[in-house]
Amino acid sequence: MNTSPFRVICRGVFALAMLSLAQYSFAQQKAAPTAPQTGVSSQPPAVAAPSPAAASTDDAATTPPDSRSLKSTTVTLRELSPWSMFLAADVLVKAVMIGLSFASLVTWTIFIAKMIELSLVERKLRAALDKISDARSLSEAQFALGAKDSMLSALLAAAMREARLSAGISSDSGIKERAASNFAEIVRAEARRIRLGIGLLATIGATSPFVGLFGTVWGIMNSFIGISKSQTTNLAVVAPGIAEALLATAFGLVAAIPAVIIYNHFTRVTKGYIELVGRSSGAAGRLLSRDLDRTHASSLVGPDSRAAE
User: How far apart are the C-alpha atoms of 116 and 21, rounded to whole Å?
Assistant: First the structure.
């Protein structure tokens, strides 16, 4: 079967997602606030310039304590935002977060593409089975399906090809066995095709937490190195580095949890679709058996009718 629909859908969704991420990153960089100016007095200029000591004393006296604490809190929150922590992270930690973001993007791309593909092929196969439900032979079933390319059409074509190649052979069991072997190969090929990309979800779900943990360990190690260099145990010195390291673990969980859930969902859905393909194989086998029995019945009726004449 042709795998182009799944690949085309994956490429389209991936391109749209990358464009959206690029636009979001550009908007974040453009909207980044400038550093607040410190030391600028809000008082109107005086006629006589006071001395620096007096000016600093007046500013400290006129600026409320609550306002200064609010400004420091605002700066701290801005510095510990996810985007600023990503920009300030170590190169290796940043590479880990970028890789995990790419893995999450791949997960959602596969999810959208496989949902569209599975819904289309399952609906198409059910409609084909309904069309041949009243068919009495392989030729009638192919006529009912028309020129549409589907899994059932491939099974019917394999049955007719085996019947044509086995013309003149009186062993029906051998024909049915060879046809069943062809059906099994077609079903296995369809199972491999429909599971394309699902194995990658299992890999992402299993490895993403450990990749994020590696980034966290590396970031915390750098934080402890910073403690030894600064020779201080103040938490404010190491808090940004630890927060950046923990952000890598969060990226790993964000990539792993949806991948595991989507993998389990597609495992159930593909199992149901393969069972539907097995039903189609059985329908093609029954039509082939009817054609063989009908052929032998006509060959037996012919000599008896001529002998009676």
Answer: 23
**Which has more confidence, 107 or 85?**
107
Tell the residue number behind the tokens 């399906």, with chain if given: 145
Compare 57 and 168 and report the one with higher pLDDT. 168
Q: What type of residue is 252?
A: G
Residue 307: other Cβ atoms inside 10 A? 7
Q: Are 11 and 106 in contact (CB under 8 A)?
A: no
Task: Please provide the average confidence, as pLDDT, over all residues in the chain.
Answer: 76
CA–CA distance from 71 to each of 32, 38, 58, 81, 192 (Å)?
17, 10, 19, 16, 60
pLDDT of residue 28: 52
Average pLDDT over residues 205-225: 88
For the chain, the straight-line distance linking the first and the last C-alpha, in angstroms and rounded, comes to: 52
CA torsion through residues 128, 131, 136, 142, sign: negative
What Cα–Cα distance (Å) separates residue 232 from each residue in 67, 161, 235?
A: 28, 82, 9
The token pair that represents 301 in the structure block: 């009726």
- The b/e string for 281-298 (b: 16+ C-beta within 10 A; e otherwise) is bebbbebbeebbeeeeee
Tell me what pLDDT residue 110 has. Answer: 94
| Helix (H/G/I), strand (E/B), else coil: 80 | coil
Interatomic CA distance for residues 211 and 100, integer angstroms: 8
- pLDDT score, position 26: 55
* CB-CB contact of 226 with 238 (8 Å): yes
pLDDT per position as a tens digit, 6-35: 565 656 655 655 555 555 555 555 555 444
Quote the pTM value.
0.67
CB 247 within 8 A of CB 81: no
State the amino acid at position 241 in one-letter form.
G
188's tokens: 């296995």
Q: Which two tokens stand for residue 21?
A: 């991420």
